[in-house]
Amino acid sequence: MPKYPTEASSAAISTALDSLRAEVLRRNPGEPEFHQALNEVLDSLAPLLAARPELLDAGLLERIVEPERQIMFRVPWQDDAGVTRVNRGFRVEFNSALGPYKGGLRFHPSVNLGVVKFLGFEQIFKNALTGLSIGGGKGGSDFDPRGRSDAEVMRFCQSFMTELYRHIGEHTDVPAGDIGVGGREIGYLFGQYRRITNRWEAGVLTGKGLGWGGSNVRAEATGYGNVLFAAEMLAKRGEDFEGQQVVVSGSGNVAIYSIEKAQALGAHVLTASDSAGYVVDEKGIDVELLKEIKEVERARISEYAVRRGGSARYVSGGQVWDVPADVALPSATQNELGADSAATLVRGGVKAVSEGANMPCTPQAVEILRENGVAFGPGKAANAGGVATSALEMRQNAARDSWDFAEVEDRLRTIMRGIHDTAYETSEKYGAPGDYVLGANIAGFERVAEAMTAQGLI
Ligand code: GLU
């Protein structure tokens, strides 16, 4: 017997969603980021469920909010002084209806189970939106790579993989990078996997080096993809990036390649930041200098202002959102852009905000942007270029092939346009044209829900 009326009234739907919300909160206490990500999805689903009440049956929602598997493990390692350290490792394998679990690893002191679950939950719908065959998962550790030597990072990665290897595989679960995990870490992780398993299994990790199974454009993909998504949103308003003033937060992989692509499209990018402060560069950010400081030297962003001289200044403790701009690309971390910052951006005349990071805007900030008619690209659509290019890396690995830069970038462009159009058309279909949050959540959810329904009660 169906649990819900076949002609689901809006009252029946909100009761069903509210009781699910309450149940998830009760079973997952102390995980505010997971609750936030969950609420954003559930808040979007009412119009879909009204049109397709059968999606309320078979415990579909109840299943989708519960990870298929959650792994937590000890990661012991020795620092350079010979002191034993113990961190905690996580891998949350959230949903494999569409393909092997796919999603990055984050190494940052803020990582805990709730953070990994929020990221894994987002990843399900993000990956579904790409249209590719990838399920959703996420992992990481509370290990802080900052200030650690290469040898310490290597020992940590080797210990982390010594447990993780038994849970992953090219057909099972395919990790990649995220905050604190870049090419160096993926190299150490891949080396240890290869050593333990005695398999040269390229498709087990993505974000590999170009000489050993990596894909062109993977390093650039999240930032490039976010700018391509923002360009599609601007195009809907008859605009493009040419001559636009852009603010970017962060100075990691996503920020760097967002800046590079926005500049290539003719934008004037004014800022970059780290957790201590930000730089404003009136001449436009020198992306090669930024790469040298952040990717090679792994130094603080304040160093950029010192080296760049006159046109740049460093603001200690502030946020880039205080700098007036036409387009804002939050590319640092979750909840970095709150209500006050959103109001400041609106006062400064912002036209579009596109999330390079995962959930960088708080729900209150999103509300303010929405009320003021700002085009808003949610991370699960706007930053999906990274994971989409990971799926292209998996495809090249499976075929033992390698595509040139132009070919991969072309495919990335097509995928980002597809994600934009799917989200936009879905928002129109459900009566909220231009609401990319609603469009992305409904389109992503529908694809996963259909696959889960077809595959039965598992
Ligand atoms: N960490 C990235 C994300 O948040 C990329 C994941 C991947 O390539 O698997 O989507």
Bound molecules: glutamic acid
CATH topology value of the largest domain? Rossmann fold
Between the first and last Cα atoms, what is the distance in angstroms? Answer: 18 Å
Strand content: 5-15%
Spans with pLDDT under 50 lasting ≥5 residues?
A: none
CATH class of the largest domain: Alpha Beta
Helix-strand pattern: HHHEEEHEHEHHEHEEEHHEEHEHEHHHH
CATH architecture designation of the largest domain = 3-Layer(aba) Sandwich
- Continuous helix count: 16
CATH superfamily of the largest domain: NAD(P)-binding Rossmann-like Domain
Q: How many structural domains in the coordinates?
A: 3
Describe the protein.
This protein is α/β, with parallel strands linked by helices. It folds into three domains: 1-66 and 434-458, Glutamate Dehydrogenase, Chain A, domain 3 (Orthogonal Bundle), CATH 1.10.285; 69-201, Leucine Dehydrogenase, chain A, domain 1 (Rossmann fold), CATH 3.40.50.10860; 221-377, 3-Layer(aba) Sandwich (Rossmann fold), CATH 3.40.50.720. 48% of the residues lie in helices and 15% in strands. It contains 16 helices and 13 strands. The chain has helices at residues 10-27, 32-51, 60-64, 113-129, 150-164, 183-197, 218-236, 253-264, 287-296, 302-308, 339-347, 363-371, 379-382, 385-398, 405-429, 436-454; strands at residues 69-78, 84-95, 101-107, 136-141, 173-176, 245-248, 268-269, 271-274, 277-281, 312-316, 327-329, 352-354, 375-377. A five-stranded mixed β-sheet has the order 1-2-4-3-5. It has a five-stranded parallel β-sheet with strand order 7-6-11-12-13, sandwiched between helices. It has a three-stranded antiparallel β-sheet with strand order 8-9-10, covered by helices on one side. Helix 4 links the parallel strand 3 and strand 4. Helix 2 (32-51) runs parallel beside helix 4, helix 4 crosses helix 16 (436-454) and helix 8 (253-264) packs antiparallel against helix 9. The longest helix is centred in the C-terminal third of the chain and has 25 residues, at 405-429. The mean pLDDT is 97. Glutamic acid binds at residues 102-104, 176, 178, 206, 358, 386-387, 390. Glutamic acid is lined by residues 102-104, 176, 178, 206, 358, 386-387, 390.
